[in-house]
Known about the structure:
By secondary structure, this protein is an alpha+beta fold. Helix content is 19%, strand content 31%.
Amino acid sequence: MTVVLRSLSDFKRFLRKPGATIQIVHNTLIERQPQQFRDAYRRKGLYEPRTVRAMSKKAAVFDVKGHDETVWLYWDKGTRKWRFHGDTVAVPINAAMGAPDEVVYRCSLPDETPAAAPPAPSLLDDDDEAQRDD
């Protein structure tokens, strides 16, 4: 299935699909680091695929393939500068000093969706679910 993202709403809908996966394809902050640091980040799973564990109104929690850890991606502030193109999402990293950086994620879905795959569990309680805005 082809992923086409044009907005944060599209991205959130994508993340709610069973098997939704994001993977870093470009990270300017890490790419400027010395090789030993880049290798360490790679060993820790920075560039491994991430699948959705849970979502809330302002964030998603991802499991990292091959690693016993989770990673959060927040979209509560600053998403106006996110760029969506095809199957990629470019997220700027706002730092007080230095050059502007960004992380680019490639989004994908499995070729075959499992028959009984449940949607990602929500981190919201029932009252927040009713107030969810895309």
